[in-house]
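Re: Re: token formats

Sure, here are both.
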Amino acid sequence: MFNRLLPVLFCFAGYCSFSQINVPLTSSEIFLQIKKLNVLGSVLYVGAHPDDENNTLLPFFAKEKLYRTAYLSLTRGDGGQNLIGDEQGVELGLIRTQELLAARKVDGAEQFFTRAYEFGYSKSAEEALRIWDKEKILSDVVWVIRKFRPDVIIKRFPGDERAGHGHHAASALLADEAFTAAADPNRFPEQLSHGVKPWQAKRILWNTYRFGSFNTTSEDQLKFDIGAYNPLLGKSYGELGGEARTMHKSQGEGRPKRKGENFEYFLNTGGPAPADGNLLEGINISWDRIAPSKGITDSIKKIIAAYKVEDPSASVPALVSLYKIISALPASNWQVEKRNELQTIIMAAAGMFVEATSSQQNVVQGDSLKVDILVNKRSSIPGSLENIRIENFDTTINYRLPLNQNFTLTHTIAVSQDRNISQPYWLVHPLTGGYFEVDDQEMIGKAENDPAFTATVTVRISGKNFEIKPPVRYRYIDPVKGDTYQPIAVLPFVEVNYQQDNYVSLNSKEVPVSVLIKSNTDATIANVQLKHEVTDNWKLLPDIGKRVGFPVSEEQHISIVVPPANKINISDPVFARALERGHSFSHYTKVISYDHIPVITYFPQATANLLKLDVKTSGKTIGYFPGAGDKIVDALVQLGYAVTYLGETDLTPQRLAEFDAIITGIRAYNLHNYLTHKNDVVNEYVKNGGNFIVQYIKSNYVGNETIKVGPYPFEVSSGSRITEENADVKFLMPAHSVLNFPNKISQKDFEGWVQERSTYQALNLDKHFEMPLAMHDTGEDDSNGSLAIAKY
């Protein structure tokens, strides 16, 4: 038997928005935000992925320098790895988006994205820019710059090979070009009709770095210490950075909370170079940049001097007077930004607590949502509740708010049948190549959708009306977490979904396809018409469009049979659509839930793949040790194998001998040390005639231990990979049984790759290994480490 040993196809809003109780600003946080009112400077940090940002530098800018600070990630991290679950692609992008937002809640920065899809590892910026459609993503970067209007832009990476890989370098090239293009009214002029104006940042810099032994810093570069301790927060910026970085849990980015000095280095790449450690040198960051603004700086200084830590409400009258002055200034980015900051400060100092919640986790199109609004003024400053609006409900209150008394109002919202479901805006249209299609220019750059429902609560403080707009959130009491808040999603009236991702016709057999139609309401669905869209390669049975009636809230499975066409080895999509009451439904609800981020609800399209394969199989039983998550088991079952999941207790000679082959999931050896500890049992299984197949390994370690795989030594290199999914594959050993039994493998079997030809290849292999395949990226030599086989 062959041992196929390594087939390496290898708040600031004052409230926490998820999974916690509302957390108002503390007195020291209010004081810090008052100090920030006197700083009118801004910094935009640019990288390629979630977790590319400098997590210590962002809070230093936002909470020490008090700049308005933001991070622009070109992608949502869709093509990365996932160490906490089996979500991949757009689902991983949804998770990593929320992880970035969780990090921003720690460091006080804002978050932006472009429409670029992270299609997988890329060695060259040229490839990344081609797949993304450079002009489209460049327009997004320009749009964010024109909206945010940063004084300084900072790149995480350089635009060359020092960046590490293609996405990183591309992010720098796009930032450099956008630095100039954003100021040119002839570049992307269509954006100007949406209220933005050309904007020229003062300078653009590269935040150089030392990653392990790779060092791009030097003492002749601009540098300053960002490791300061902030007594108002009780933390250093290194500690805040550790907290923020640790939110990238899907990437295993847990980091220490660093203390002590920490120098960052910068190289100017555009605009006049700064001096004396001041990145914003030559930029007026005082109120003098807004005319007329005489006296505002002094007013803020007086409020700071008179601030009472034990009684923030004592500053409210002066803060409201300042709010009136700023509101009277000519409209500008800074006028709007500082007015909004000031309103948040006033509400926090006045102890104003406002929330809108529902006991319903979701709401369905055509149904209703019961909303509870709570208002409590927890300081002695005089104030009144003037008005509450939500959807089509508008009521005048005129209620003088007493000290620390709850005012509650309950209203039921009627949700239209035509209301859009809560699909993340970048997933409304199918993914197009390397970017998401977004029709609405105003949505581009935003981190996420606006809340499905928002209340508007008008309160009057010190003679001035203020509108507070809390999102309506699902509130419940978790027996472990306690008071818990989650987003509310609008669900479709009817859902339709295929029960499998792939339906395989093996050797010309008919294909039973199971479809699920589900009502999300208590209303009886009695007249649903189901439609399927297929290519001409497939024939549908005549009754496939029949009408189906079923009781209230009952799931209905509809089995159809699709006779395959007289062709071999074809793959085509099939789409399902349900028609009910004049509306069309073609999506289903999917929920992603982890403790460190809000619950994510999104709606994949009802689609599956129809495959006709002529495949021979050998053996019947397979044992499977799960790894970090893959779809291999589903595929094996559809090929007719009996697959059994295995764990540590199954690693005995007797148990393994029950199976014709054993397979380990992706990165299983990096996750489970028991595979290393019982490598002798694996070797005995192979020696006795078993097939042991290992999918790709990311590194040579499990924790701090060196992994042991099989009887002969080899190494894995995470830096050795073939990233071009259409790279030519050479058959070095065309007569080898792995390429001929039980099926002959040809070049056609390597068509349709969606990401990377070969990830993490084997190197320095023992002489017993055979490597039947070779491949290479453009401009590189052949590598044969994608598939390694050893007899034992």
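Second one below.
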Amino acid sequence: MPTTLVIVESPAKARTIARFLKGRTSSDVVVEASMGHVRDLPRSASEIPAKYRDLPWARLGVDYEHGFEPIYVVTKDRRSQVKKLKDLVAKSEAVYLATDEDREGESIAWHLAEVLKPKVPVHRMVFHEITESAIREAFDNPRAIDERLVDAQEARRILDRLYGYEVSPVLWKKVSQGLSAGRVQSVAVRIVVERERERLAFHSAGYWDIGATFEHAGTEFPGTLNTLDGKRVATGRDFDSNGLLTTEAVALDEKEATDLAGALAGRPFEVTAADTKPYRRSPYAPFRTSTLQQEAGRKLRFTSKRTMSVAQRLYENGYITYMRTDSVTLSASAVAAARTEIARLFGQAYLPKSPRVYTNKVKNAQEAHEAIRPAGEHWKTPAQVAVELPGDGAALYELIWKRTMASQMPDATGETVSVRIGATTAAGISTEFGSSGRVIAFPGFLAAYVESRDDDEDETSERILPPLAIGDGVEVNALLASGHETKPPARFTEASLVKKLEELGVGRPSTYASILTTIQDRGYVSKRGSALVPSFTAFAVVRLLEDNFPDLVSYAFTAHMEDDLDSISTGDQERIPWLEGFYLGENGLRQAVSERLGAIDARAVNSIPLGSDASGNEIVVRVGRFGPYLERGTDRASLPDGLAPDELTIEHAVGLLEQSGDDQILGTDPATKQEVTLRTGRFGPYVQLGEQVEGTKPKRASLFKSMSPETMTIEDALRLLSLPRTIGVDEAGVEITALSGRYGPYIQRGEDRRSLASEDQLFSMTVEEALALLAEPPRRRGQSKASEPLNELGADPASGKVVTVRTGRYGPYVTDGDVNASLRKGDDPGTITLTRAAELLAARRERLGK
């Protein structure tokens, strides 16, 4: 029987769609996954086809001499899947490309068509939710591949390759190997670094005020001193970043505030002003990609990557609509579903007379898309979904459900009340305290959803004040003077950085999660709690780009570039002329890198001045090949891992430099004639051979747990520095080495490792003893035996051995006892089949063979 082949990205999506299309046509419908992108630009020199390797543009993978034609190669981990798809295409009478509805999905569909080269009709199947009605509608009404969308996505891919492959080598030569630059990535790092610079330059100021606890008609409420003899009392907003008072406000010190609180004790207080204003608050628009990431970060403490991963699973399993969208619009069916649910769950009072309509504020939003919402025309409640899904999925669905429901509910209304309460000391000093509150008369959309706020956003506390009129007396239950310090600007969180990128028009919301992951994986940014802290390497990279390639990290330039790329998708610009201007123009990237590379002073770029010590000696942070370190004249000291730049004060730096000067000389190494010293670092005592100079790293070894710095001898130190020790070789000539690692002593042969029972074995173990230990089965750290199988699937067709599903240190995997293969995204350990497990094991054997 002929078949119709439908190709999607993931196995989970394939399973869901196959269920909806079963019996849809006279032929069988086969739904298969491409496992994401099937080809890309070459990732290494070995992937470049031989016929191109000697050409000047080959390393880029883009022929900029002939219309920026890219070289695309099928990626290694997709070759077996491409072969499978080609076999299925050969047996099919039609092919439907059902990849995601955005530009990247369009690009994947185009690549599939180019690679598979079907000789049968090819259709593009597009939908924004995976429900039976949506899938059947898309299947019955396909379209052609949108060449403009493909062109726009290919322009982005080529641009990012040119940017990364031209600028990254500059960082390798002038800062450190392994660094990377990116069109949005580098701008994101600059934003984080600029905030840290503000924190470094910040000087706090101290100020005092008086807090009061009042009572009237049996109700307690708080107040704060606002004015003193008619002059406003200073708060944190009255001081600048240098700690200087910039307004006419009165700044109280501790004595003044304490004395004033004492002078007011027992004095009569009465209401001097009372003001009531109507309060109205409208609901928020439904989620788009960026606002979902922000709110999931605030409310659920999800990273952007985690949010998008969970949202992907919700979408593929038919719970929500497509999660990569800039749009805040809802379809008519979605509005109808929301209004039905509102009336059922909250009552008619919470149903507006007409639907709410939201418009996009994001430039170049794809209006054809919908906002992120529950899928289908009849929505499951969060309670229903919680029964079907694990924690993350249920929590994110509830957030989306509440936000969508609230978007179609009425305003919250009430009153905001502000009062002033005055008192005069016996000495005639007049004071006035302020208090405010809010009374919600009708909660409206707040009955379903309340949006979180960033740490630096202010919101009047919702508290109820008693009925108060001018002249009413109030009781004073407490008066307390309290001190405060102004705070530096808050560091960015993932949520607030996403918001900033969107405000600047830098990048697309669908890429923010990957950008945030990249800048952390590359070591530019680390997390302290939820705050993003830049590294000293990030400072060096940003300085290099600002000084030598300012346009590449300019917010306006990058946003304008984003507009240009979007205009390619609309046909207002053509891809090739635009790329020529960016890369080959008079001020193009290629020429800029060529002209600037030789003029960049690596030492200046990698120097971050801190200031001078008490003797006037300049202290500088240097970013070296092996990490950042302090330098003061000839004195040097390593910086502790995880130290935030704004925590490295002059006093702290002097302490580190002086601590590094307390090294104990143990003796001289007879072989190298270098001094051996005993030192103390962040992770405890260690011995070092020679001194660190820029560009080189001396040999070091941590003391064993059984050793003490007080009894350390030159002989002990030389034994430590002799590690790793070559024990010998096995029958095949493979070297066996003894090493001391983070988790204790061990031996290694190739990729095979075994832990040792004691540190003494590092120096005494023979080849025979090592081979005997390596012959034993490996054990995971802290585990005495292999984990129990979660499920037994049957015999593997290739090996004939029983395949089981197990859970390991890095998650669930399948194994036949000899080969282990991790489950891929979309594979469920509870429902995985023997066929799928055999595919994973075969792919793993292929990689091991290579």
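The chain has a mean pLDDT of 89. The radius of gyration is 33 Å.
- S.
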